[in-house]
Design goal:
single chain; 270 residues; mainly alpha; 12 helices; cell membrane; ABC-2_transporter
């Protein structure tokens, strides 16, 4: 799934008269071109998040609904959003960050006007747009196809998605710092992917787990994201519970941001 950077499409440092937004846009445009040439990463980002919800649908129809009071849309939609965040944003960006580092792209960009934050934001923007677009698409599809009632708190769904997008980017930065090669990044990204799928309420809602296990899983990085999305559908999150989930999500974002600042490598790992 590694991406190969060709000479003709390398992002270059912006000129002296450029604005931060102009530099960010130029870098994001170059990254989008490169992402389009990486068939493996593109397939992972576009296809897998749209296919996995069908497996959740099958298991939900057979057993999960019997163990919870959740409707089908309240099970499938949070799962679909979570899969989009994990595969379209997190997994894709781990690969992008590692490849750009190993091919010295980040090192060259730092010699120009681009700041470190702009470099990472520009590299992440295409995947962020894809992930956000998928979240919107699967939300509309689930609410329409599953004949669901209107969300009780659409603002919580939006907030959960936004927190998830930021967290996915920062988590990708941390994982990239621990990955030596693009091939190795496919392995180092798996623990968080599987842990989140199984323990954050995506493949299996926390309501279906034993109470003690659910109380532990509630503390996982993507658990507050899924809790906010599901709470926006059901309307069952109280004001206090909403604040707790937001606080936990923000706390994970702060921890991940600090880790990226301290651990992220701008030059190849030897």
């Amino acid at each position: 799934m590694s991406t190969t950077l060709t000479t003709g499409t390398r992002p270059t440092a912006a000129g002296p008269t450029s604005t931060p937004m102009g530099r960010l846009t130029s870098l994001a445009r170059a990254e989008l071109t490169l992402l389009g040439r990486s068939k493996g990463v593109l397939f992972t980002a576009l296809a897998i998040p749209l296919v996995l919800p069908f497996s959740v649908y099958a298991s939900a129809k057979d057993s999960i609904q019997d163990a919870t009071s959740l409707s089908m849309s309240e099970i499938i939609l949070p799962a679909a959003v979570g899969f989009s965040l994990l595969f379209a944003v997190y997994s894709a960006l781990v690969n992008v960050f590692v490849v750009r580092r190993e091919e010295l792209v980040f090192k060259r960009l730092r010699t120009g006007e681009l700041r470190d934050g702009e470099i990472l934001a520009g590299a992440a923007l295409p995947s962020l747009l894809i992930g956000f677009g998928q979240c919107v698409l699967v939300s509309v599809a689930c609410l329409t196809v599953l004949d669901s009632k209107a969300p009780a708190g659409a603002h919580l769904i939006v907030l959960g998605v936004l927190l998830g997008l930021v967290l996915a980017v920062l988590a990708a930065g941390v994982t990239a710092a621990l990955s030596r090669t693009a091939e190795g990044s496919q392995v180092t990204s798996l623990p968080l992917v599987f842990l989140s799928m199984l323990g954050s309420g995506m493949a299996v809602p926390l309501e279906a787990l034993p109470d003690k296990l659910a109380s532990v899983c509630e503390l996982l990085p993507f658990s507050p994201v899924i809790a906010l999305v599901r709470g926006g559908l059901t309307g069952e999150l109280s004001g206090t519970e909403t604040l707790v989930q937001i606080g936990l999500g923000v706390a994970w974002i702060v921890v991940a941001a600090i880790a990226v600042r301290r651990l992220f490598r701008w030059e190849p790992r030897r």
